[in-house]
Amino acid sequence: MNVLIVIPARYQSTRLPGKPLVKIAGESLLSRVVKQGKRAVTLLEKAGVTAELLVATDHDEIFAHAQSLGASVIMTNPDCPSGTDRALAAVHESDRAPDVVVNFQGDSPFTPPDFISEIVKVFEKDPDIAVATPAAKLSWQELDRLRESKIKTPFSGTTVVVNPHGNALWFSKQIIPAVRKEREMREQELECPVRVHLGLYAYRMDMLETYCELPRTRYEKLEGLEQLRLLENDIAIRVVDVSFNGRPYISGIDSPEDVERAEALIKSGVFQSE
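Now predict its structure.
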């Protein structure tokens, strides 16, 4: 199986212009994402999977920076409406023919590389899976931190609920599910039922083409979550449960507040770069 990991890295961002070049504790956002992507390539190759990393950008400065990081990079149209569309454009522009394309969002520098290898594995196990994405169950303490972060940045951090078959029922920027008897569950030391979604998607090539041909949907626009386009068109998304294994959850970098939060965790020693 041939896998192409694409990092969409556009310049324009409403709350954080030039986001891929923004420094987090002295290192650019793009540098941190590329490092994780390269580690994922190594993990996949050790598992016998042919894998490659490609940065897809729309800006000369980001292009040059990606090259300086030793990453393969390609220029794409600035008018690509989403990161997924940019990933597909990168495949077309590069004349590559992967079986599976991983959209490793360029604002997720703390996604563990093993999460990428975990979602790729499901395509080998089940030929019926067309889209896969990871999610991790939060501890009650992590849920508390997510709630606190949403006071200042309510649209940072996405949660997901799944059906008994492991497919997504819904994604939301609200914290779902609501937990009516949370106090009793905490007292009984029951597992927190909230899964946080990680900004990472893997598509079989034909499904990536299909996705990008579909028009934007009602709830996709309302929530600002492109994966809802698939659910609103009755296309199953397999949610792969992954574990941070003691590593802290840090949401995607969407705002100056997110940068400050990430830097505070790094400098406190709670988060250590691999």
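The chain has one domain: 2-268.
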